[in-house]
Amino acid sequence: SIVTLLITTNNTAPQKTKTLKVKPKATPNPLLARWSGKFQEPPFARIEAKHFRPALLAAFREHKGEIEKIAGNTAKPTFANTVLALEKSGTLLSRVGAVFSNLEATDSTPELQDIARDMSPRFAAHETQILLDQRLFRRIDDLYQRRDALNLNDEDRRVLERHHLTFVRAGARL
CA–CA distance from 67 to each of 58, 73, 96, 97, 166 (Å)? Predict the structure, then answer.
């Protein structure tokens, strides 16, 4: 936007005008902001199709960093620093992805369909990259091999077993 600034002096000289280019204040992406409300529901009234692509790309980057931190951890694998950390990772991607998927499925527009065509292979590549990360699989496999000695409760043991099976079925052992 362009703003015209009127400069007035105290003398009788003619008034001067100066044109300044001012960038409009950027509207924050509501998908990346903290969601308020009793149930942390998405701010649907403020969400526009243009918000999804940058939010999803930011969420992919964040999740990739979280996975890298887990896979690159040099400490001995534990349930907490591997499986629990993996379970807690990707919150932003899950949140933004769920809103996008629901809107695209129930109230689709050509713009949302275009984003879906662009993002679908990115979701697949992202998941494949995680499931074929040998460093991450070695950590999960180490825990799986020691599962009897870890004294895990039934729920934690099942979560470990499901993660291990998912990685194996995706080809991590090949």
Answer: 14, 10, 18, 17, 16
